[in-house]
Amino acid sequence: MAQFFEVHPKTPQLRLIHRAVEILRQGGVIAYPTDSSYALACMVGDKQAMDKIRRIRRLDDKHNFTLVCKDLSQVATFTKIGNDAYRLIKTLTPGAFTFILDATREVPRSLQHPKKKTIGIRIPDHPVTQLLLQELGEALFSSTLMLPNDDEALTDPFDIREKLEHELDLIIDAGIIEFEPTTIIEFSSSGTEILRQGKGIAPMLD
Questions:
Q1: Is 123 among the domain residues?
Q2: Within the chain, which residues score under 50 in pLDDT?
Q3: Which residues contact 186 (CB under 8 A, 6 or more apart)?
C-alpha cells in the first residue's frame, strides 16, 4: 500500500522529502511531480525496482529510458557530453527537455538504447523534483507515469492512488499537473536534432 504525501508544489516540506529519500534508498518505487507530468522513479541500478516500473508501464528493453539529474555534473557522470552539448544543456535547463546522449559505463547496459548505446537525461524545472534530487544526492531512474494503452500521463494524484496504490511505495501529491510531453533533443556525430517538439522551447535549434 503506497504512502501518500501532500507536498507544497513550490515550497516542499523538507521532512517529507527526507522520508521520500528513505523510501527510495530502501528500494521503493515512487510517483513524483515533474515540470511536464507525473512520473515513476527509483534508484539507478536497483534491478527489482526498475523491473517493477517496466511492469507497471509494460515496457520492453527497446524503450528509451531516462535518468533524472540534479545538475550538469551528474549528467557528465552518465554521458559523453561534448562542449557544444554542455553549453546547450546549460542554457536550456532546468526545463522540460529530454536530452539523448551517448552513455558512459556508469549507465547499466539494461538502461541504454540496445543499438545506439544512448541514454535520456532530464533536469526538470520543478521545486519538488529539485529538492528530492538535492537531498538524495544521486540521479533517479525515471519514466513518465503513462499507463498501458493510455496516450497521456495521469494528471491527478488521487487517480494515481486509485489505480496504483498497491503497486507503488509512495505517491508525492503536488497538485494536478497537466501532461505536456518534453521536447526531445538528440546529440549525435551528425549533429543536434529535435526528435520531438514538446513543452520545452529551444529557439536556437529552429
A1: yes
A2: none
A3: 99, 100, 118, 192, 193, 195
